[in-house]
Design a protein that fits this description.
This is Lipoprotein signal peptidase. By secondary structure, the protein is an alpha+beta fold. The chain has one domain. Helix content is about 60%, strand content about 15%. The chain has four helices and four strands, in the order αββααββα. It has a four-stranded antiparallel beta sheet with strand order 1-2-3-4.
């Protein structure tokens, strides 16, 4: 099934990138890729997005497990009702959530490395990218495609 394949590919990209960063960089080390815009910076995030809830890994992990379960339940229950785009979106969100949960379980922190200093000060990882793309796809689906269904 395409969704399982997509899930595995996204999870492998996320986990492999974190493995490489964890093995080759020291915490806080930065490698400029595009001067004054994009860097690889190794950060150990012990909270959630944007550094919120730092040091509360137990609470964050419990909430993440609940979120993963709810996403999987919704996806399986509504699989035939939701569009192809939504299926891709939920697969991406699920993959990102699982990728970060793997870090929390096996490292007790999430490895972040994507540092776009030219845009903002937050550092994130591929799992975060997958989650955000998934959310954007769901919003696009509901704004542009569900609207057309209601008009008919």
């Amino acid at each position: 099934m395409i969704y399982i394949f997509l899930f595995l590919i996204l999870l492998i990209i996320d986990q492999y990138s974190k493995f490489i960063v964890d093995r080759t960089l020291s915490v806080g080390e930065t490698i400029p890729i595009i001067e004054n815009f994009f860097n690889l910076t190794y950060v150990q995030n012990r909270g959630v997005a944007f550094g919120l809830f730092q040091g509360k890994i137990d609470i964050v992990s419990i909430l993440a497990v609940i979120a993963i379960g709810l996403i999987l339940f919704y996806f399986c229950k509504n699989f035939k009702k939701i569009s192809f785009l939504e299926r891709i979106a939920y697969t991406m969100i699920f993959s990102g959530a699982v990728g970060n949960m793997i870090d929390r379980i096996f490292r007790a922190y999430v490895v972040d490395m994507l540092d776009f200093r030219g845009i903002w000060s937050f550092i994130f990882n591929f799992a975060d990218v997958w989650i955000n793309i998934g959310v954007v796809l769901i919003i696009v689906e509901h704004i542009f495609f569900n609207r057309k269904k209601r008009v008919k």
